[in-house]
Design brief:
The complex is a heterodimer.
Chain A: H1 5-19, E1 35-39, E2 42-46, E3 52-59, H2 66-79, E4 83-91, E5 97-107, E6 110-121, E7 124-133, H3 134-150
Antiparallel strand pairs in A: 1-2, 2-3, 3-7, 4-5, 5-6, 6-7
Chain B: H1 14-19, E1 23-32, H2 36-49, E2 53-57, E3 61-67, H3 71-80, E4 83-93, H4 95-121, H5 124-156, E5 157-163, H6 188-197
Parallel strand pairs in B: 1-5
Antiparallel strand pairs in B: 1-4, 2-3, 3-5
Classes of the chains: A alpha+beta, B alpha+beta.
Chain lengths: 157, 200
């Protein structure tokens, strides 16, 4: 990436401390050990190892259901050059069904892991993304999956 | 199995041929590890223990040749040593090529046997010409035997290729636009750039 990761992490943690704690999306929780912050709509959090976590929504357009978007998303990511390491059905809080893709791809000089979960809720699609250098993301994988399992999809704006 | 012996006719029996694998096996794993040197050492040792060897080793990759029946175990050892980023298995059918080479070899050996007969009966003026032809056929036989040995080796030893980083560094998120707008917002570079922007 050509920049000091430690410097970036430190900055992000300060940024998180200033902006994030007590942010508007009270129902959203970061993965354990991540510092949350919110800016321009999405919920964001970062770990001390620079693993990032973001929750946002996009319009469900054209209106389609989860099985449709599962197929479309996987195809899109494969076409984009990502390697699919695993895919699974997941549940958020209240049993809200979702879909998880675990991907890998080169990013800059490093190889990154990229976790991508979607939940389809009426006219919105809730998108959860987490990424980081592959070994660092792997170390945080369980925390990220636990955060997804706790996610109150209805509370995501 | 009917290994080629230099100077001897190579006529594998039908049973031998049936018992031989006919497809070359290639496994490749892209692996993120914290200690490449240590993992490479361990995998080379594991391959040697299984009767294999390494053919290439550098900072970013390792290529191993492992007896086909042991490749799964060595690959599992690799997978357990790090985080798998990619995994691929391919096979290449060499059966036809091997059959064809063996048939050509048998045919050349028949030709050589006939030349020997001709040589015995040749007059002094014909000996040189026959010997010249025999040398050409012998060279072709040796080349075919080499090629058969190589094919047989490829069938006996699977290739296990370990990369410690992606060789292809290109993600093509912008290469093609999806007709579904939200899918165009999902990409690793976009996510990381979003966090980078937060620093500015």
């Amino acid at each position: 990436m050509g920049r000091s990761e430690h410097g970036r992490t430190a900055w992000l943690l300060v940024f998180a401390a200033v902006l994030g704690l007590g942010c508007g999306s009270a129902r959203l929780e970061p993965p354990a050990g991540f510092a949350p912050y919110e800016a321009s709509g999405a919920f964001r959090a970062v770990s001390p190892e620079a693993v990032v976590y973001r929750v946002r929504t996009e319009p469900n357009e054209p209106r389609a259901d989860l099985p449709f978007w599962k197929e479309a998303l996987e195809r899109r990511m494969i076409d984009g050059g990502y390697r699919v390491l695993a895919k699974s059905d997941v549940s958020a809080a209240g049993g809200e069904p979702g879909f998880l893709l675990e991907l890998a791809a080169p990013y800059g000089a490093q190889d990154f892991g990229y976790l991508l979960a979607i939940f389809v809720r009426d006219d919105r699609i809730v998108i959860v993304e987490s990424a980081g250098e592959a070994l660092r993301l792997q170390a945080q994988r369980e925390a990220v999956l636990a955060a997804i399992a706790r996610l109150d999809v209805a509370g995501v704006r | 199995m009917g290994a080629v012996v230099l100077g001897a006719p190579n006529r594998a029996t039908a049973a031998d041929a049936a018992a031989q694998p006919r497809a070359a096996v290639r496994h490749s794993v892209t692996l993120a590890v914290s200690d490449r040197e240590g993992v490479a050492d361990a995998l080379v040792a594991r391959a040697e223990e299984a009767g294999g060897y390494f053919t290439l080793r550098d900072d970013e990759s390792l290529a191993l040749k492992v007896p086909v029946e042991k490749v799964e175990a060595v690959e599992q050892a690799a997978v357990a040593a790090g985080t798998v980023l990619d995994r691929e298995r391919t096979t290449e059918d060499l059966g036809f090529q091997l059959d064809q080479s063996r048939a050509q070899l048998a045919s050349k050996q028949d030709v050589l046997a006939r030349f020997r007969e001709v040589l015995r009966q040749a007059g002094s003026e014909g000996v040189v010409a026959v010997e010249k032809e025999m040398m050409r056929v012998v060279a072709e036989i040796e080349a075919l035997k080499g090629s058969i040995r190589l094919l047989e080796h490829r069938l006996r030893y699977a290739e296990l290729s370990i990369s410690f980083r992606f060789r292809d560094r290109s993600i093509r998120p912008a290469g093609s636009r999806s007709s579904f707008p939200w899918l165009n917002t999902v990409s690793l570079p976009a996510l990381m750039e979003d966090f980078d922007r937060g620093q500015k």
